[in-house]
Design brief:
With 371 residues, the chain is an alpha/beta fold. It has a single domain (4-366), classed as Rossmann fold (3-Layer(aba) Sandwich). The chain contains twelve helices and 16 strands. The strands form five sheets. The chain has a seven-stranded parallel β-sheet, sandwiched between helices. Bound molecules: nicotinamide-adenine-dinucleotide.
Length: 371
């Protein structure tokens, strides 16, 4: 019998794919997930895509008793349970802190003195804030930010003192974190707490800093996270995707299959005490990605709406330097955006997407968090 692996948040988008991959590799999988209504709908039933071979425990990550039971006989833990959403975290501060920070502390307390031999925690690119930049003088800028004043004037790019636009570079793990939202702060806390306790108690621990993950099973009706899912739900409702700023902001889209492969390598390789970027290493602008999606959905007649609006805390560019992942995990992303979008489109054909973007936006407007 294969080793037993626990996935917190295993009913979610990434967790469910990871479940499939681990079962395929001969592991036994146990999931603990509270089926958060924002992700799973108000009836919060076990999603039909969830692999029936996995053992499922419906419980909150803050439920110490449930976790103690869930950890029985477990050899490795993937900690994925989290409240996910940058903008929303700026007003649901308690909820994000409760799930992400307190939830991680409850997991870690219960992890001590168990049979767990590996911990892998889902961290996020959001901890970097802006990515790495090079100025026209060749100087590398590690801690650049955009001021609200600058955004009000629609000066989207990061500039040197002489006014020249800085060049965005692939962001390595050594980039100084710049925490611009409660979500980012909580993801950084999750990462540091896991690495710190793992190191102190000799539980080999790895933090994987995911970039923009996309693929099937992404919650289409959750307007708070996942730009591709948000755009898809707009197209499926014959409405234009709303693009902030000028649409030229660059992101790194990585397919969930590649993410799950990286997770398995982190589990199986003899590594510890590391934070590793998991992206594709390739950037696309947000406008480009909207266009590519419209092509595979046959919706090129719908022009994205380039709003010129902005969200406080949003970054201009961030894409991954994946050298460390290649070196220590043997990671090599396989799914190109073109291929990944074709698969996504085939899945989307049978999905009903409730477009709740206007609700999410009006929540930000009401709090002065968007222009
Ligand atoms: N999807 C991305 O692009 C991305 C990028 C960076 C990091 N991440 C991280 O990866 C992890 C998984 O993300 P995802 O995209 O699969 O999100 P998701 O929302 O689809 O999955 C999260 C799961 O956690 C569960 N959950 C939430 N609160 C819980 C609680 N209090 N107790 C128990 N379960 C709870 C939800 O029900 C859900 O099934 C998260 O930690 C997220 O921060 C995701």
């Amino acid at each position: 019998m294969g080793d037993l692996v626990l996935i917190t948040g295993g009913a979610g988008f990434i967790g469910s794919h990871l479940t499939d991959e681990l079962l395929k590799r001969g592991y036994r999988v146990r999931i603990i997930d509270n089926l958060l209504p924002q992700v799973h709908g108000s009836v919060s039933v076990k999603p039909s895509y969830l692999n029936p071979e996995a053992e499922f425990i419906r419980a909150d990550i803050c439920d110490s008793e449930a976790l103690r039971k869930a950890l029985k006989g477990v050899k490795a833990v993937f900690h994925l349970a989290a409240s996910v959403g940058v903008g929303q975290s700026m007003y649901q501060i308690k909820k994000y802190t409760q799930t992400n920070n307190i939830g991680t502390s409850v997991l870690l307390e219960n992890l001590l003195h168990t049979s767990v031999e590996k911990l892998v925690v889902a961290s996020s690119m959001s901890i970097y804030g802006e990515g790495l930049y090079k100025g026209s003088d060749g100087f590398i800028h590690n801690t650049t930010i955009r001021t609200v004043d600058q955004l009000r004037k629609a000066q989207w790019d990061l500039c040197c003192e002489d006014g020249t636009v800085m060049e965005p570079l692939p962001t390595p793990e050594s980039k100084v974190p710049c925490l611009a939202s409660i979500y980012a702060l909580s993801k950084y806390d999750q990462e540091r707490m896991c690495l710190l306790i793992g190191n102190a108690y000799n539980i080999p621990t790895v933090a994987l800093r995911f970039f923009n993950v996309y693929g099937t099973r992404q919650a289409l009706s959750n307007p708070y996270t996942g730009v591709l899912a948000i755009f898809a739900s707009r197209y499926l409702n014959s409405r234009p995707p709303m693009i902030f700023e000028d649409g030229k902001q660059r992101r790194d889209f990585v397919h969930v299959y590649d993410v799950c492969t990286a997770c398995c390598c982190a589990l199986e390789r003899c590594i510890a005490n590391l934070s590793i970027n998991i992206g594709s290493g390739i950037y696309y602008s947000i406008s480009q990605v909207a266009l590519e999606l419209s092509k595979v959905l046959g919706k090129t007649d719908i022009e994205p709406l380039i709003s010129g609006k902005f969200r406080i805390g949003d970054i201009r560019h961030c894409f991954a330097d994946i050298t460390l992942a290649k070196n220590v995990l043997g990671y090599k992303p396989k799914i190109t955006l073109e291929k990944g979008l074709i698969e996504l489109a085939a899945w989307l054909e049978n999905q009903i997407a409730h477009d709740k973007l206007d609700i999410a936006n009006s929540e930000l407007v009401a709090r002065g968090l968007t222009s």
